[in-house]
Design brief:
The complex is a heterodimer of chains A (about 80) and B (about 220). Chain A is an all-alpha fold. Chain A contains 2 helices and no strands. The longest helix of chain A is centred in the N-terminal third of the chain and has 37 residues. Helices cover about 70% and strands about 5% of the residues of chain B. Chain B contains 7 helices and 2 strands. In chain B, strand 1 and strand 2 form a beta hairpin. Classes of the chains: A mainly alpha (about 80), B mainly alpha (about 220).
Chain lengths: ~80, ~220
């Protein structure tokens, strides 16, 4: 069976997205759990906490989105596939 | 589905200039926002009517939020940040209007907005602190960290762009795949999730822009 560059690109995109989602998923879970813990201890600080949480989640999520962008580049704008 | 999300979506040619779909949607949103503001403030009075009250509530909420982030007088920055937020909410939510595609789902619009944030952060920083003092910020805490500071400046602008683009575009993809898999009722919860994603991404983009500008102008104690 012959491997074409397109096939390998698709496999590469799948691996990128699937493994790239693991780390951000874990860390977002930990961040939300920590924020819930803090809000449960001090409900009056929910406002600033949730704002910081959203910004932090956006930062963490960026890693997953980088992986998504690389997958899209592999699929749609692959420089090695003419 | 088969069209690339990175390729421009050309609607028609205006002379030699190709006009893409995001441009048309952006101008439509701009026209709607301008018309609503004009209608609401055409006869602005102390005893405000319904529309003027709504607009005032929006502006005051934005002012309070921006103040809580940058901890100084928000009015020099509010026109930019407020416009960004309101435009992004409308742009992201244009996905729920049948036939419209969100302009933020193509990479040009987030790139332009991120470039505006990047340049205006430097503008506000230089105006607030002076050129030399502002440039000295990059050599803190040590001159050795100058390349890293410059690099972080570039990557955070890039990630600002990619985050907005990736979220909105990937949501369009999810909807397309769900419609492809199961026809009628199943896409509706995903579309509702899309409303949430659109508003959260508009909020995050604005908050990050405010954080960047706040970091560029420095804290009040530093003055």
């Amino acid at each position: 069976m012959e491997y074409s560059l397109e096939m390998l690109s698709i496999i590469g995109a799948v691996v990128t997205v699937s493994f790239g989602a693991i780390g951000p998923a874990f860390s977002e879970g930990r961040a939300v759990a920590a924020a819930m813990d803090a809000i449960a201890r001090q409900p009056e600080s929910a406002g600033p906490l949730s704002r910081t949480l959203f910004v932090g989640l956006a930062m963490i999520e960026t890693m997953a989105i980088y992986c998504l962008v690389i997958a899209l580049l592999l699929l749609y704008a692959n420089p090695f596939v003419a | 589905m088969e069209t690339s999300p990175l390729a421009p979506d050309i609607l028609f040619q205006l002379g030699p200039v190709p006009i893409s779909r995001p441009v048309v949607t952006t101008w439509a949103i701009m026209a709607v926002l301008t018309a609503v503001s004009w209608l609401g403030l055409r006869r602005a009075s102390v005893h405000a009517g319904t529309l003027q009250t709504v607009l005032e509530i929006v502006v005051e909420t934005l002012e309070k939020q921006v103040y809580e982030i940058i901890r100084r007088d928000p009015w020099p920055y509010l026109p930019l940040l407020g416009t960004l937020f309101i435009f992004l909410v409308f742009a992201n939510l244009s996905v729920i209007v049948p036939g419209m595609k969100p302009p933020t789902g193509h990479i040009e619009t987030p790139a332009a907005l991120a470039a505006i944030v990047f340049l205006s952060a430097h503008y506000f920083g230089v105006r607030s602190r002076g050129l030399v003092e502002y440039a000295r910020r990059y050599t803190k805490p040590n001159l050795l960290l100058l390349p890293l500071n410059v690099l972080s400046e570039i990557t955070r602008t890039f990630s600002l762009m990619v985050r907005l683009f990736g979220n909105i575009m990937s949501h369009e993809f999810v909807i397309a795949i769900v419609v492809f898999l199961a026809g009628l009722l199943l896409p509706i919860p995903f579309m509702l999730l899309g409303i949430l994603i659109g508003i959260i991404q508009a909020y995050i983009f604005t908050v990050l822009a405010a954080v960047f500008i706040g970091a560029a102008v420095g804290s009040v104690e530093a003055e």
